[in-house]
Design goal:
alpha+beta; three-stranded antiparallel β-sheet; Alpha-Beta Plaits
Length: 321
């Protein structure tokens, strides 16, 4: 059970957690989903299983060794023993990985994965739960119609009902409306006047610049004659800057100030079997030598983990854009 818990913890940090000689759990992002019934599902990371990825990348074994306080080799042996038990149990029953999903064999004797879907492995949106939004209702206010007082008995009344005062009968409202209109007119006058003077200044600057350029073009200068000087220039190979249309994921072996030393390191890596190449220059002008440059992040991360955790080589990861 410890191994399944470690796998779940690693899925929050890595996109791929490989179980040697068994398969790999992969996470992929899912966008926000809103159904026609009004259900809102926040962004999340969903889990899949690929039984073809069985090569050891060292991630699970190193994490196991760190958590249990044992050596890397002992962690590998414990994982192999647990995987052997899983394969036997999978022939007759379902394997359950808490928080991740279930594995079982289908009729074609292939592993079928059913994710639980209850855990969000995206740390940026962790804790957000689906909810249903309530429909918006418009509140209509009904106005009561007040009819004028009626004299059904036709009696003489001692008073006359007052008429409702209109806006024009209230001097305060008239003055407030006049004030608002005056402020609006003043604001419009200031805005358009400022725009006019700004345009006039820009036009004057353009005309002055044109006059200066015209005088410079018409001017002639007597600079005399020059003595011929021979200069010997030694050309060094300069790597061309390539404009990338898509990101390149590189695993860097080292950075060198001399192009010659960088070429030596690249030839050494090629002789050892790597598809080494020169990566883009760093901001300080150093030449970077890469073990390999890949079009997908997954290939670069796999090589990086193999170099660091299996071969214990110094390497780091770079995204070239």
């Amino acid at each position: 059970m410890q191994l399944t818990r470690f796998i779940q913890e690693l899925l929050y940090q890595h996109e791929c957690v490989t179980i040697p000689q068994f398969g790999a759990f992969l996470t992929r992002p899912a966008r926000v989903k809103i159904t026609s019934e009004g259900m809102f599902y926040p962004p999340r990371k969903e889990v899949n299983f690929n039984q073809l990825l069985v090569a050891n990348d060292g991630v699970l074994a190193h994490y196991y060794a760190h958590k249990e306080g044992i050596t890397y080799e002992n962690a590998l042996r414990k994982i192999e023993k647990e995987v052997s038990s899983w394969k036997k149990r999978l022939q007759t029953q379902t394997l359950r990985f808490p928080g991740i999903g279930e594995l079982r064999l289908n009729t074609e004797k292939k592993i079928q994965f059913n994710p639980w879907g209850k855990v969000n492995f995206d740390l940026q949106t962790f804790g957000l739960v689906p909810f249903k939004r309530a429909p918006l209702e418009k509140e209509v206010l009904k106005q009561k119609h007040i009819s004028p007082m009626e004299n059904s008995s036709k009696d003489d009344l001692m008073f006359t009902p007052e008429k409702e005062k209109s806006v024009s009968d209230k001097p305060f409202l008239r003055y407030a409306a006049i004030g608002v209109i005056g402020v609006a007119l003043l604001s419009a006058t200031y805005y358009f006047g400022d725009q006019y003077f700004t345009n006039q200044r820009l036009e004057a600057q353009v005309n002055a610049q044109q006059q200066i350029e015209k005088k410079v073009q018409e001017a002639t200068f007597d600079i005399g004659s020059f003595t011929t000087v021979e200069v010997s220039v030694k050309a060094e190979p300069v790597s061309e800057k390539v404009v990338l249309t898509q990101p390149i994921y590189s695993v860097i072996a080292g950075s060198f100030r001399s192009l010659r030393n960088a070429e030596k390191k690249r030839e050494q890596l090629i002789s050892e079997g790597y598809e080494a190449a020169l990566a883009e220059l760093n901001p300080e002008g150093l030449y970077r030598v890469a073990y390999g440059r890949f079009k997908t992040k997954k290939e670069a991360i796999s090589l990086l983990y193999f170099l660091k955790y299996t071969l214990e080589e110094e390497a780091w990861y770079l995204v070239e854009k």
